[in-house]
Design goal:
Elements: H1 12-19, E1 33-41, E2 51-60, E3 63-74, H2 84-87, E4 97-98, H3 100-111, E5 115-118, H4 121-134, E6 144-146, H5 147-154, H6 169-175, H7 186-207, H8 212-215
Parallel strand pairs: 1-5, 3-4, 5-6
Antiparallel strand pairs: 1-2, 2-3
């Protein structure tokens, strides 16, 4: 069956995305492309809350591809005024908003089969998977990494200093002296996460050769 066969259960944009995973990822670490992402949402319930915006940028060869970003705002089917002080997105926002399906379609085209990176990745990936489920589509197929988990690998093990169970993105900005400008916007947090990820990679490289296997 061709990937654009309209008799397929899934739409063309999903088939195009899924077909990319037939090709293996590059073997050389510096040839890998990482997509660093963040979502702003109405809350933290993956089933009942909704995505308000998605921000993402690409890293390759330890460089941020600043000319290739994703920054989309979604039409608000649900609204939670309690979350507005965090993300600042109002119900009648002047941002150009698109439907959930169009946002997911753009996201899939942007990320392709690249490796996803996020802080507390399980939440962001879970929110996107919930959106996919509402569209009767399968879950994301990408490998993903969590900067919160990776950061712990940089810490020196000591009986005197016990690592915390969870490190927030604010913790990482303080540890690595990263500016908090545009904090709590999806693209702003994606950029902060990307800087933290690069600094984590630099520290891990001091311990052993970088490889996707080691990071996972």
């Amino acid at each position: 069956m061709g990937i654009f066969n309209r008799s397929s259960k899934y739409p063309d944009y999903w088939q195009t995305y899924a077909a990319l995973f037939k090709k293996p990822l590059p073997k050389e670490f510096d040839e890998l492309t990482f997509v660093v992402l963040d979502t702003e949402t109405t809350g933290f319930d993956k089933m009942n809350d909704r995505i308000l915006s998605i921000g993402a940028l690409k890293l390759k060869g330890h460089n941020i591809q600043v000319n290739e970003i994703l920054d989309v705002y979604l039409q608000q089917e649900a609204f939670n005024k309690e979350s507005v002080p965090i993300h600042g997105i109002l119900r009648n926002s002047k941002q150009d908003c698109i439907s959930e399906e169009e946002a997911i379609q753009r996201f899939l085209k942007y990320v392709g089969n690249h490796i996803l990176v996020a802080h507390h990745a399980g939440f962001d990936i879970g929110m996107i998977n919930s959106a996919l489920k509402r569209l009767d589509l399968p879950k994301l197929k990408n490998i993903y990494l969590d900067t919160g988990v990776l950061f712990k690998k940089t810490l020196i093990k000591s009986y005197l200093v016990q690592p915390k169970e969870h490190y927030s993105l604010d913790d990482l900005t303080e540890k690595f002296s990263i500016s908090k400008k545009d904090r709590h916007t999806a693209l702003g947090d994606a950029y902060i996460t990307a800087i933290a990820f690069l600094k984590i990679l630099s520290k891990l490289k001091e311990k052993r050769e970088l490889s996707l296997k080691n990071l996972r």
